[in-house]
Amino acid sequence: MSVYVGIDVHRKRSQIAVVEDGGAVRVNRNVPNGVEPVLSVIGDLPIGAPVAFEAAYGWGWLVELLEDYGFEPHLVHPLRCKAIASARLKNDKVDAATLAQLLRADLLPEAWIAPVDVRQQRALVRHRCQLVRLRTLLRNRVHAVLADHGCDRPGSYFTAPGRAWLEGLDLPDASRHVVDDLLNLMDALKEPIDALDAQLIAQARGEPRVKALTQLPGVGTLTALVMVAEIGDVTRFPSARKLAAWAGLTPTVRGSDLTIRHGHISKQGSHWLRWILCEAAQTAKRSPEFSVSYQRLAHRRGKKIATTAIARRLLTRAYHLLRAVQAQQDHRGVR
Fold it and tell me: 74: helix, coil or strand?
């Protein structure tokens, strides 16, 4: 008899439901996260048994466990699953059993499970982005402290001349202490950021997808690395529009009868990809390729919407470049 497993994953514990082919619930148990507790519930199930779980916080360990022990993992899109299985009664037992029942009925809205190497690359580029964001936060705090005392200079505060200017400022004791602490934290962040930059740039040298993406205006090596890591296997998207939808750059649509209303972008999917594209669009909108269309859109819809539109056009071009690289690699593999 076939069995289907649904797991409602949480930070420390998970609810596991096992459903038989006829729909009867064999077991529905809450266990701590870990190899032994999970296998105590599903370890005696047949090899290759399908297991469904939502793309919730910290699901990576569960994928590795299931693959190592021969189960068939199915990652579920959480928002679309809630739309299908919305119920007035909602708790962990119901959620786990619902996942298993949807898996049995072949109604699961599945998401792509990125391979381990892609997940590791994403972790690396996201870590670098978070460290840079932290450094920016510290810089903004320095600006805020100095603005409190009416201090300013034309150039940057954080170049060699800027640091010398900061050290020479006559500030009250508390403000001087805050500024010195912030500068020390920025100095401490410089070493890991520089090390990550060197590691990522070394990886990019032999990556044809990165080389192709850097042809786009506003896309440098590190930006291309983020795009490659977040997109992963581009062939899983049948069109550029599908990729744009996954990045959350397509408008929401509400339609009834003959009335159709288009709203703002959905902002669903990979917020990292959407963020890096909007950053690249800030430069790309001034390039000869996009400046005319940007100005036209900005005049009609405003600068923010126009910049987002340029981000989507960048992603569309990136899609075709990545497909061309993939086709070239497939052709070489066949030959």
Answer: strand
The strand ranges marked E within the chain are 3-9, 13-20, 25-32, 50-54, 72-76, 110-111, 251-256, 259-265
pTM of the model: 0.87
Beta bridge partners of 260: 255
Q: What is each CA distance from 122 to 73, 117, 128, 244, 334, in whole angstroms?
A: 20, 9, 10, 19, 29
DSSP string, 240-255: HHHHHHHTT-SEEEEE
Strand order in the sheet with 3-9: 25-32, 13-20, 3-9, 50-54, 72-76, 110-111
User: What is the C-alpha radius of gyration for the chain, rounded to an integer number of angstroms?
Assistant: 25
Mean pLDDT along residues 126-134:
96
Each residue of 34-44: pLDDT tens digit? Answer: 899 999 999 99
**Mean pLDDT value across residues 195-202:** 95
C-alpha dist (Å) from residue 61 to 44, 99, 125, 285: 20, 19, 20, 41
**In 10 A of CB 236, how many CB atoms?**
12
Angle at 183 between CA 181 and CA 186, to 5 degrees: 110
Distance CA 322, CA 213 (A): 8
Q: What's the number of CA atoms in the CB half-sphere (13 Å) around residue 284? A: 29
Q: What is the dihedral of CA 231, 232, 238, 240, to 10 degrees?
A: 20
